[in-house]
Design brief:
alpha/beta, Rossmann fold, Helicase, Ruva Protein, domain 3, five-stranded parallel sheet, 14 strands
Length: 473
């Protein structure tokens, strides 16, 4: 009755068998236990559901035709809602194609007929375990990615932004983000994508402002071979690359009106044509658009499609500028400091309270992106492990917090960066040596330089240090 051929080597796991025929339960469970699996059995639908709650199996072999109030299809329908992580394999002695199709549509992994082939069961179990392992790995990577792109800050406007993301991410609605350059619009779009049901599918971005108007159609929609001179093969556009996932269009106000109208048609018909093509491509894509312009004003001046704006404006929210949540700057500095140290192999630097205060007072017109770039520059230009106000100034922080003086102006007037850096280093070393009463060892320790390297700098700059003891020059 049963083909009990040897099973391929598989990883032991917890399995539930739900079947009203005791010989099937006994033979199948005994064979699976011999292979190292933990096996639980149930004789009807109700006890099967109870066993799922109590034992949390990875795989359930579920008979379709069973006596009692619940047959296999009804158990499957109920269980898929309550236990989404369980995989179900339907078994039947007199199944039909229609029944198999129905079970698959309801979420069954596979359908096998009696008499049972243990070879086939072995393959199914192995495939399920492999799939579950890959899914767990992907989920772990996805969680790691979510942590790496998390929006930092607990200011009121950032909390409101995170709450909005949490509300809109699970939906399928198209979204419009407003905000200044560098404020984190793309990062916000990524958060929406990776918190949505599309997280395992592609996130594709396109910056409309960076693409010439005559190329935007081909970039977005792709093109067919022979569509224009030089089109030697069919090329997928960003839209097609994002199928099943999310397409982020930054600076959407820069799109041509023709491209805008194509997007409206895409929203209406859920399909598009490549440039030069005649066939329609189905488009299951979520669109997130971003702009720093006033789209209502753009509509009035004839530069933006009112239809597209109406469809995008269903879910619209603003990404705040950094000056609107300045209290988050210390957290961001710490984060970007960690990144700079890890990515460039630097020893992590400590920022003085005065330096942190200066950065908090700065207006940061380039927003979070400017702050990130500035911290990277500080790491490159500051030799020691301690960053003070003068290090910020040397790295270029002027105005809006870091006060300028005549020395700063002199540096700015020097013709080359090398000359400015040399002048700064000499003045800096003179000041530090003076603060440490001419003690070179102590000065080197305070500013984070090797003593021999400091000696070479002093000699190169022609700095005179009062001699008085063995540690002095």
């Amino acid at each position: 009755m049963y083909a009990l051929s040897s099973m391929s080597e598989i990883i032991p796991t917890k399995i539930l068998i739900v079947d009203d025929e005791s010989p099937i339960r006994e033979v199948l469970s005994a064979t699976l236990r011999d292979e190292g699996h933990t096996v639980v059995t149930a004789s009807d639908g109700e006890s099967g559901l109870k066993a799922m709650r109590e034992h949390s199996p990875l795989i359930v072999f579920l008979d379709i035709w069973m006596p009692g109030s619940l047959d296999g299809i009804e158990v499957l329908t109920t269980a898929r809602k309550q236990f989404p992580d369980i995989e179900f394999v339907m078994i039947s002695g007199h199944g039909t194609i229609e029944t198999a199709v129905k079970a698959t549509k309801l979420g069954a992994w596979d359908f096998i007929e009696k008499p049972l082939s243990m070879d086939k069961i072995s393959i199914i179990i192995s495939n399920i375990i492999h799939y579950q392992s890959e899914r767990q790995e992907k989920q772990a990577l996805l969680n790691k990615l979510r942590r790496s792109i998390a929006l930092l800050g607990e200011a009121a406007k950032m909390v409101a932004l995170k709450q909005m993301i949490a509300r809109v991410a699970p939906t399928q609605s198209w979204i419009l983000l407003t905000g200044e350059h560098g404020s984190g619009r793309e990062l916000t779009a990524q958060n929406i994508h990776y918190l949505s049901s599309r997280a395992s599918r592609p996130f594709v971005d396109i910056n409309s402002a960076a693409i010439p108007e005559d190329l935007i159609d081909t970039e977005l929609f792709g093109y067919e071979k022979g569509a224009f001179a030089g089109a030697e093969r069919t090329q997928k556009g960003k839209l097609e690359l994002a199928l099943g996932g999310t397409l982020f269009i930054d600076d959407i106000a820069e799109l041509s009106l023709r491209a805008q109208e194509k997007l409206v048609r895409l929203m209406q018909e859920k399909k598009f044509q490549r440039v030069g093509g005649t066939e329609w491509v189905d488009a299951d894509v979520r669109l997130i658009a971003a702009t720093r312009k006033d789209l209502e004003k753009e509509i009035q001046e004839g530069r933006f499609s009112e239809d597209l704006y109406t469809r995008l404006n269903v879910s619209t929210f603003q990404v705040p500028a950094l000056r609107e949540h300045g209290e988050d700057i210390p957290v961001l500095v710490e984060h970007f400091s960690d990144l700079s140290a890890k990515e460039a192999g630097f020893i992590k630097k400590a920022f003085s309270q005065q330096a942190m205060n200066e950065m908090c007072l700065h207006t940061w017109p380039g927003n979070v992106r400017e702050l990130k770039n500035f911290i990277e520059r500080v790491y490159i230009l500051t030799p020691g492990e301690f960053v003070d106000v003068h290090d910020l100034r040397f790295a270029g922080l002027t105005g809006g917090g870091a006060n300028t003086n005549s020395s700063d102006s002199d540096l700015a007037n020097l013709p080359t960066f090398r000359e400015a850096r040399a002048k700064f280093e000499k003045e800096y070393l003179l000041k530090k040596i003076q603060e440490n009463n001419g003690n070179i060892s102590r000065t080197a320790e305070v500013i984070g330089l090797e003593r021999s390297y400091l000696h070479r700098k002093i000699k190169a700059f022609g700095i005179e240090v009062q001699k008085g003891n063995d540690d002095h020059l």
